[in-house]
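Per reviewer request, we include the raw input and output of the structure prediction for the construct analysed in the revised manuscript.
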Amino acid sequence: MTLVSIITPSYNQAAYLEQTILSVLNQDYAPIEYIVVDGASKDASVEIIKKYADRLAYWVSEKDGGQAEAINKGFARATGEIIAWLNSDDYYLEGAVSAAVKIFEANPDVVLVYGNMLAVDEHGKTFNTLTYKQLTLEDLLCFQIIGQPAVFMRRSALQKTNSLDATFHFLLDHFLWIQLAQHGRILHANQTWAAARYHAEAKNRAKAAEFGREAFRILDAIAQDKRLAPVLATVTRRARASAHRVDARYLLDGGQPAAALSAWMRALLIHPPTALARMNLFVSAILNLFGLGKLRSMILQIREARHKA
């Protein structure tokens, strides 16, 4: 059977780590090579890891340079034909691994498979389902984001990249998807495979304003890449507008509505359809600027209540 390698990077996530580990170990698929790379956590993480050490292919707890370095350590040790990583505050749903393997086996030209994803709060309660669509390399260049916990990669394609760029901390996964998409087809499975946890300490909230800066860095890096630059040239305006739109979204999450509105307006000037596709960003920024942020929160709460119902 196809060996699947899964890496979990972790640092001070004892509150969620055990659920993450069990979501891998309790999959209905074998063999799984499970690697846990802890960054010298100061909480109870190591005790939790040791509890399951006999079921892990490898684990370590030592200081590192951050998430990218930890995951790259796991990549270097992984021997599976299929590879994924699962952050220590996220978890897989039942049957995720076996479903991904079946798709790879049926599609030998596919280098990356991604499913849909739940968004859950710190208590594990679902407040949204993120349903994706089939994307192309051009879509990735225009920052159509894929939920990282629901992604599986072919190791032969990963080895053709430089793995994760350790100078990125927020969109490092998206940059890797772009690198992989040069080497084969990416494929969406309309199945829900994982849950991403949104909590106060998660970087998607704690450092939301940093995401936009990395979007522009990605564009600059791609423009210097001999293979990717010609593809980027075909969608330059859309890609640049999309980077501003990403900036707007995360600035809004970071509590900077004026800056978010400015970023959205720049996207509108560069490529109107890209900005207008996310009018909700414009509306939310305006509401916050006029002190009506509570109204937006009420709308979100109603949406979450309907989802839970």
